[in-house]
Amino acid sequence: MSTEEKKNSQISLDSETLSPSTEKEVSEIVREIYSKKLPIEITGTGTKKVFGYNLQTAKKLSLSQLSGIIDYQKEELYIKVKAGTPIEDIEKILEENNQELAFEPIDFGYMINGQTNKGTIGGYVACNFAGSRRFKVGSVRDHILGFKGVNGKGDIIKSGGTVVKNVTGYDLSKLISGSFGTLVVLTEITLKVSPKKQSQITVIVYSDEIKKISNLFDKILSSSNEVSAATFIPEEPAYKNYEHTKNKIFKFNDLDQEGSFLAFRIEGDRRSIDERLKELKIELDLSNFKSSILDVHQSVPFWKKVNNLELFSGTKNNILRAVMPPAKCETFSKFLNKNYKYYIDWCGSLFWIEVLDKDDEKINKIKNFILENSGYLTILKKSENFDFQDTLFTIDSTRLMISKKIKDSFDPKKIFNPGRMYREL
Amino acid sequence: MTELALPQIDRTTVSKKSLIVSQLKKFTNEENVLSENEEIKPYETDGLAAYKQTPLAVVLPENTKEVSEILKFCNEENIKVIPRGAGTGLSGGALPLQDAILLGLGKFNKILEIDFDNKCVVTQPGVTNLGITHAVQHKGYYYAPDPSSQLACSIGGNVAENSGGVHSLKYGTTTNNILGVEMVMMDGTITRIGGKTLDQEGYDLLGLVCGSEGLLGVITEVTVKILRKPQSVRAALIGFPTVEDGGNCVSDIISSGIVPAGMEMMDKALIDATDKFSKAGYPKDAEVLMIVELDGTKSEVDGLLNKVSEIAKQNNSNSMKLSNNEKERLAFWSGRKAAFPACGAMAPDYYCMDGSIPRGKLSLILKEINQLSKKYNLAVANAFHAGDGNLHPLIMFDGSDKEQLRKTEEFGAEILKACVKHGGALTGEHGVGIEKRELMCEAFNNDDIQQQLNIKKSLDEKNLLNPGKVYPILRKCAEEGRVHVHRGEEKFPDLPRF
Ligand SMILES: Cc1cc2nc3c(=O)[nH]c(=O)nc-3n(C[C@H](O)[C@H](O)[C@H](O)COP(=O)(O)OP(=O)(O)OC[C@H]3O[C@@H](n4cnc5c(N)ncnc54)[C@H](O)[C@@H]3O)c2cc1C
Ligand SMILES: Cc1cc2nc3c(=O)[nH]c(=O)nc-3n(C[C@H](O)[C@H](O)[C@H](O)COP(=O)(O)OP(=O)(O)OC[C@H]3O[C@@H](n4cnc5c(N)ncnc54)[C@H](O)[C@@H]3O)c2cc1C
After folding, report:
1. Contact yes or no for B30/B63 (Cβ under 8 A)
2. Which of A22, A207, B80, B151 has its CA 20 to 30 A from that of B347?
3. Is A132 on the interface with B (CB under 8 A)?
4. Are B315 and B250 in contact (CB under 8 A)?
5. Dihedral angle sign, alpha carbons of residues A343, A348, A350, A353
6. CB of residue B161 inside a 6 A radius of ligand 2
7. Which phi and psi (to 5°) does residue A350 adopt?
8. CA of B186, nearest ligand number
9. Which of B172, B257, B430 sits opposite A142 (nearest CB)?
10. Phi-psi region for residue A66, left (φ > 0), alpha (ψ -120 to 50) or beta?
């Protein structure tokens, strides 16, 4: 087919990648592929290899043309955007207005190929992976006020709206968050936005002792001093030479001691930061530790590095994401420590773990440990040689059965991202 | 009240009543199955007391296994089931049906685990909202969502309605504060969703179930997040000469970046009403009154309170008090808490509406409500969760006058439609239930509603679990009921109302 022909046939199903530029076109395309029962892969920026199973779909539906801010009401604290809008565009306009997305979007680009790439808001909502502030402000889904999208039959549907208090009908904004594009093609998303805090500092506490670290996490979680992020960055295992080490990535003037460290962030105006710091020093017995403080100029880039998985920049290995009940932090860290390159975010709940190539057995061991300790696991990136099996998922059969029914109610012919989340969906 | 369409009565089920009752007695202790008229009468209505209907029978199971067996049996025998918590719901969600079993969760009244290490509480659904806070407050913790019915309403009901409260502005509603549930599906399948972790693997079923008004499953266990009590709490009581000034002040506070713990507003009618009622010392010259509550560290709260009073002054506030101790703070709230009883004292009946709007439209909607009040010649008083745009207009009328009743219903429906027109929602926290069912088409089109019905069908194929609620039966926008309180017959008169 000539390029000219391709151009004209954007809406017809001839080209391999379909790039609708309106919601109506999305709906027409989906109606067509529904009637032909053609599975498609939904992509945001669409340039990337994907997570989960490799999809064997005939067509790609790219949402990148469906981009732009529809309505930004600064006073009402919401922004309504088309689903293919780059996250960076949203962050830019919010920044100009001294606001932000409180869930701190993660830039997965570093992990993928060593470069920044935040992707589109549709792609991000479809994954529901919140950044470091999660334990304080909730997940991505807690910031979605409403959406529009196209279901697997081509019907344009909506749920929610622009106001925070709304219990009219089922809360589908939650359900579509984290559904990896298997329920609807998102076309429009309304996000809650938050005022930016005036300033921030980060306290670094140096310690290699897992017990002490998990104790600190617990005290931070129990504190009413509103710590907004807390991470533990351990020394890498000694036996392997990693390209990106803790010492290389976290180079800051005031991060001046050797060894593993815990870091936590305090945000607010100067006065409340000082007051909180004073109280936290007592609550956490910081006089028993070596510690230092990153001022706002160091604190901001520090958390970007944590949030954006820069420790795993460009890795060829498997990257695992595990979420544990906070009280399991100590046992799980002990299991990982010195054996794996890993770090902990969400004040002791979220573990990012790198597992070397071809280490299927190790991954299974980790999985079993997580299951025994009531956590769950997502394989974020798999090395090329790794044969990805369902056995890696930690979902139970009853929930999988319910999930299939839900899938069926949105996408009865299973044309959206078949097998992206689970082989059966 | 306007006649309410309910699902068609299944006469076969009704005729088999005694058989069904004896069957139910096999699944649980005999005394847990109620079928005599005087036994089941207390269950004939919920907080929307205008609607009454006795169920076929009431069953009060004691554990999840019993719930599962009962549901499985009902599913096989095509018997409808209505879940019920404490029955404080204001939209008729727990209204029984003549041919349905009412499944009460009252015996699920134990807290199962207090887990300070994981900052959560695992509880049975029949435990009251406040019961959870009581169980953890000795260590300085609390459960954040605080519906004003918290003394009586069950946590299971809170999950089913996604209930909110005064402090939802800062701390979110139920959906933002639960970690997991155990739920029994209509076919008897028991499932656990979430647990003690943040988020969950797979579809966010927790988010779907929260606010599903008992249509998707019976909740038999809830894991809630608990928070540490803030160190310092103070409030400001501020009066404004015009509604616009008050509305603008709300918007300015929010857009200045302050997130108050709560921000409430009441209009002149309610100020007068509550002043007579509670002697709260509210300003007489104010058109609207605002209570702003701030929490955090001590100097932060002091600083924010100063900022709030600055913003109020810029918006022409004509009176201001700042609380200096707990006693003063609670005194500020005392009048606001008397809002509903005060209205009850002013007219034989009142309707409580529950719509929400963008904050910036507060003064606009108040004006419209006042115009409507003139048009219908019915008095109205307004209480707002102003910070999140959730309004509770209270229309006063005399229910014994049929014409007034009809006009009141029209008035209420016009308010809710106006909320939707201004970009808001039909219901902010009380749920759709039977009350706003036929108004759903104001907010959604057929495709939207069909998608929701498809979900319902996928999990409850025969539409047996709480049928006739939330989704329009008539599929035309009939205008019907709001909360109807008649001549002191108000349910739960002792509960504070916000
Ligand atoms: C968990 C995860 C794993 C990743 N793994 C890889 C990887 O292995 N290789 C790589 O190159 N990049 C990967 N990325 C990078 C990622 O694709 C981008 O960085 C970005 O997060 C997603 O934005 P996007 O718009 O490019 O979405 P995409 O990457 O195109 O899509 C992300 C997911 O969202 C769905 N989706 C996208 N838009 C919509 C929409 N409008 N409606 C419904 N569903 C939609 C997709 O089907 C897909 O399941 C990963 C990202 C995440 C969050
Ligand atoms: C005086 C007063 C003040 C109020 N103030 C507020 C307020 O400030 N904020 C607010 O949000 N609400 C308020 N409400 C409304 C009401 O208290 C809430 O909706 C509450 O969550 C209902 O809980 P319940 O246990 O009474 O549920 P019920 O009324 O028994 O049931 C409500 C709905 O939930 C379903 N349900 C109950 N339990 C379960 C279960 N275990 N599994 C599945 N479904 C179930 C029922 O089928 C029904 O649809 C108020 C009510 C009153 C009477």
Report:
1. no
2. B151
3. no
4. no
5. positive
6. yes
7. -110, 130
8. 2
9. B172
10. beta
- Domains recognised in chain B with CATH numbers: 11-104 (3.30.43.10), 111-228 (3.30.465.10), 232-436+481-498 (3.40.462.10)
- Helix pair angle (A270-283, B298-314), 10° resolution: 160
Interface contact flag, A400 B455, Cβ < 8 Å: no
Q: Which of A271, A323, A403 sits opposite B198 (nearest CB)?
A: A323
Backbone dihedral angles phi then psi of residue A95, each to the nearest 5 degrees: -55, -45
Amino acid letter, residue B9: I
What are the residues whose beta carbons fall under 8 Å from the beta carbon of B109, sequence distance 6 or more?
A: B124, B126, B127
Distance between CA A379 and CA A365 in Å, rounded? Answer: 14
CATH 2.60.120.200 assigned to A199-381: no
Question: What single DSSP character describes residue A238?
Answer: T
Closest CA to B349 of B301, B290, B412, B291: B412
CA of B164 to the centre of ligand 2 (A): 10
Contacts A158 to B, Cβ<8 Å: 444, 448
Asked if B239 and B360 touch (Cβ cutoff 8 Å), the reply is: no
* A73 CB within 8 Å of a chain B CB: yes
Distance (Å, whole) CA A190 – CA A184: 15
CB B323 within 8 A of CB B329: yes
Task: Supply the ipTM of this predicted assembly.
Answer: 0.94
Take residue A157 and report the two structure tokens written for it.
Answer: 């549907």
Chain A residues whose CB is inside 8 A of the B136 CB are: none
Of B192, B356, B360, nearest to A166 by CB-CB distance is: B356
CA distances from A179 to A110, A156, A396 (A): 23, 17, 17
Task: Kindly list the residues from chain A whose CB atom is less than 8 angstroms away from the CB atom of residue B192.
Answer: 396, 399
Q: CA–CA separation, B227 vs B122, rounded Å?
A: 14
State the nearest Cα–Cα gap between B407 and chain A, in angstroms. 24
CATH class for the domain made up of A1-196+396-425? alpha beta
Torsion from C-alpha of A3, A9, A14, A15, nearest 10 degrees: 50
Predicted model pTM = 0.94
Residue of A51, A151, A320 to mutate, ligand 1, most atoms within 8 A of C-beta: A51
Of B199, B206, B452, the CB nearest to A170: B452
Query: In chain A, which residue's Cα lies nearest the Cα of B460?
Result: A405
Q: Identify the CA nearest to B232 among candidates B312, B287, B158, B297.
A: B297
Residues of A in contact with B205 (CB under 8 A): 175, 399, 402-403, 406
Alpha helix positions (H), A308-410: 329-336, 360-372, 397-410
Ligand nearest, relative to CA of residue B212: 2
Token pair recorded at residue A387: 């044969």
Nearest CA to ligand 1 atom 37: A123
Q: Specify the residue for token string 């998608």.
A: B451
Q: Exposed/middle/buried for B264, CB within 10 Å: 0-12, 13-18, 19+?
A: buried
For chain A, residues classed under CATH 3.30.465.10 are 1-196+396-425
- Give pLDDT tens digits along chain A (425 positions): 344 444 444 457 888 899 999 999 999 999 999 999 999 999 987 544 545 555 667 789 999 999 999 999 998 999 999 999 999 999 999 999 999 999 999 999 999 889 999 999 999 999 999 999 999 999 999 999 999 999 999 999 999 999 999 999 999 999 999 999 999 999 999 999 999 999 999 999 999 999 999 999 999 999 999 999 999 999 999 877 788 999 999 999 999 999 999 999 999 989 889 999 999 999 999 999 999 999 999 999 999 999 999 999 989 889 999 999 999 999 999 999 989 999 999 999 999 999 986 667 888 899 999 999 999 998 888 877 666 655 566 788 999 999 999 999 999 999 999 988 888 88
- CA-CA distance, A183 to A179, in Å (whole number)? 7
Residue for token pair 């958390």: A303
